[in-house]
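Handoff note, outgoing to incoming analyst
You'll be picking up this chain. Sequence as last confirmed:
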Amino acid sequence: MYHKRDFVEIRAYIKEVSSMARRNKPRKRRVFLKFLIIVFSFFAILAAVMVAMLFLTVGPPDIPLLPDFTQTQTNGADESDPTVSILRAPERFGNEDRKELFFTVLILGLTEGQNANTIMVASFDGVSGEANLVSIPRDSLVNTDRWLRKINGAYPFGLLEGRGVIGGVERMQREVMSVIGFVPDFYIVIDYTAFERIIDAVGGVEIEALFHMRYDDPCQNLHINIPPGVHHMDGRMALHFARYRQSNWGYQDITDYQRIENQQTVVNAVLGSLFRPGNILRIPEFIDIFTEYVHTDLATGSLLWFAMQFQEVRGSGALATYTLPTDGTSGPPMWYEILYAPGIVELVNRTINPYRIDIELWDIDIIWQ
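Most recent structure output, in case you need it:
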């Protein structure tokens, strides 16, 4: 049998336990907050150490040396196969003719079908701090043995030759050389996924649309709808801005050259966002994206070196953009862009030629009127 005194003692005990729990609750909160601070500090220090280790590897890349006449990259292929032999510059050029701290990079932006929708050659002069970006129209007519002789088909044709990305890059290098007279030192191959991820990682870009861009293609699952005005674009919207060419809604169409200008605008905007101070600690994330989605022969330390160099000259508007000059089109059915050789030679020597010797008309191999 329980007595009334027993219930009084039980209630007193429960009250005491509850009081102790209330007194201990703030202490538990303080312990938890301390734990969070320790964990956050650990990861902050870890991120700082990773960034510091990355910066220890920072430095300019080694420029590929010119062989006597050709550079052969076999990668398991038959050395007697002429398709693996790459002439990187005119035969009269030598390593001693290189400009000091002058680098060139071939940049390819791929569509889902692996066509090179964007073809650019970038140069950076480490002495003057000048950077140039020259776009090659994707429909440029090139002197090649392919049935469809638009330069944007060089990369997928190289893939089909059986050596994957390396084959695609080498085929594109050869056809780019036929247009500008030399093979750029390095390459970066980027697809739509990487494009979106990089822009999202830098926090988006601010770009102005001059008119309503609207286009729908259910077959590609492509739906573009960008009203006129200034927009803070995420990766998907910026990709749509760069891809827009024509409308099926009665809106304004643009030429391929205007689309190239839009692509150059996006590149400039990404570079401006990338070098914001707040993005410095996100360098490991950018490197992860590059590792997973981007093919390049540039080492991480070299990419960081370019980023740091470009950040120093960014304020002066040192990045200049150009497009190779053309002289009309072939018309239907192929609509090739006919490149203008004299204008190309002048532009190349003024902007991206890494040699002290000028490229001459006979150094390029294009079909022009």
